[in-house]
Design a protein that fits this description.
Elements (H helix, E strand, L loop, with lengths): L3 E4 L3 H12 L5 E5 L14 E2 L6 H17 L4 E2 L3 E5 L2 H16 L4 E3 L13 E5 L3 E3 L1 H14 L3 E4 L10 E4 L14 E10 L10 E4 L5 E5 L2 E5 L6 E2 L10 H11 L8 E11 L6 E6 L2 E5 L9 H14 L27
Helix pairs in contact: 1-4, 1-6, 2-6
The structure holds flavin-adenine dinucleotide (FAD).
């Protein structure tokens, strides 16, 4: 059987290597030039949602959720994901998306705003109780552990380009463009963590539909995030403290019990953006496959992506419809941009 080198041991590469091994591939190398889960996966919020705005993205996330459910705590906490709207237009958007999501079997429903979250300006909210929050590096390390148990060779500190192989899988996140010609641009995104707070046991991920401001509980702290008003394209991951005041003000408004807290820790990571904010998943050249360009939501889709790509590599075809994610779509106009990029 051909030697398969998976380039990148983040959430995506780990899942591909694990699924290749599960399907019986016997010569798989998982290579990372850093360490397991040292790229974007180490910086992720850990949100796991099935609530997207386009059918292909909903399907990828929906078909991943069972895997997270099986992993369970402490890897995945099924606390739900709540989107709230404060304008008529925002609410109409939520309801339209809810119809699409429900038509695909995702149990999204109108929901009450949970205790502690300000609701006097809220016109309506929707939630999916099967969504939740996870620990991306821990999930990734667990997958690598399982993959290695099944015979995958792990090489850390190794550039995948230096390894002999018959098949290369590009799963190098924001650095994927260094391994193949791909329309991927890194975009810096920050996570801010509060001081320890008194928090309810089961706080869902809370997302403001109009602003994209969102927060989750991580241990005894809240982690908050929001898109920058001016996108930070490039690989600079220094922390921009100038936004702290704005984000704390938004948090104090939406979650009054957190008023007066400070930002205790902050980090910036990289989204691997494509022009339409959908990933590139599939064969891109003879003996070369890609799974990258996840545009800020790859962790939650990694189980389905790993399963589908492993099937494609080993069987030559997959029962999963990967056609929406083909690289070739960029030869024409990308016609179905994902709008729910948080
Ligand atoms: C602030 C932030 C918040 C996020 N929040 C969420 C969220 O809530 N939910 C969600 O699903 N996603 C989220 N994401 C996105 C998520 O982190 C990524 O989509 C996901 O982790 C991508 O994993 P990956 O394996 O593709 O990439 P990475 O984790 O970046 O892994 C790529 C790996 O490739 C390695 N590499 C690079 N070049 C080479 C080479 N030549 N040879 C060998 N190895 C190489 C790197 O060292 C790295 O370890 C967030 C991202 C950020 C930055």
């Amino acid at each position: 059987m051909a030697r398969i080198v998976v380039a990148g041991a983040g959430a995506i590469g780990a899942s591909i290597a694990y699924h290749l091994a599960l399907r019986g591939a016997s010569d798989v190398v998982l290579a990372d030039r850093g360490e397991v889960a040292s790229g974007s996966t180490s910086k992720a919020m850990g949100g796991v949602r099935q609530q997207f705005s386009t059918e292909p993205e909903v399907r990828l996330a929906r078909d991943s959720i069972r895997f997270f459910e099986e992993l369970g705590a402490p890897f995945f906490l099924q606390v739900g994901y709540l989107f709230l709207a404060t304008t008529d237009a925002g609410l109409a958007g939520l309801e339209e998306r809810m119809e699409l999501q429900r038509s695909l079997g995702v149990p999204v429903e109108r929901a009450a705003v949970p205790a502690g979250v300000r609701d006097d300006d809220v016109l309506g909210a929707v939630a999916c109780r099967r969504d939740g929050v996870a620990d991306p590096p821990a999930v990734t390390r667990e997958l690598v552990r399982r993959a290695c148990e099944l015979g995958v060779e792990l090489h850390e500190g190794t550039d995948a380009r230096d390894l002999d192989r018959e098949v290369l899988v590009v799963a190098a996140g924001p650095w994927s463009g260094e391994l193949a010609e791909l329309p991927i641009r890194p975009l810096a995104r920050q996570l801010l963590e509060t001081e320890p707070l008194e928090l309810p046991e089961r706080l869902p991920m809370v997302v403001e539909a109009e602003t994209g401001f969102h927060f989750r509980r991580r241990g005894d702290r809240l982690v908050i995030a929001m898109a920058d008003s001016v996108p930070r394209w490039g690989t600079d991951t220094s922390v921009d403290e100038s936004v702290f005041g704005d984000r704390l003000g938004r948090l104090a408004h939406r979650y009054p019990a957190a008023a007066g807290t400070r930002i205790d820790r902050a980090s910036a990571g990289l989204y691997d953006m494509t022009p339409d904010a959908h990933p590139i998943v599939g064969r891109i050249a003879e003996g070369v496959y890609a799974a990258c360009g996840f545009s800020g939501h790859g962790f939650m889709q990694s189980p389905a992506v790993g399963a589908a790509l492993a099937e494609l590599i080993l069987e030559g075809e997959t029962s999963y419809d990967l056609s929406p994610f083909a690289l070739e779509r960029f030869e024409g106009d990308a016609v179905f941009p994902e709008t729910l990029v948080l």
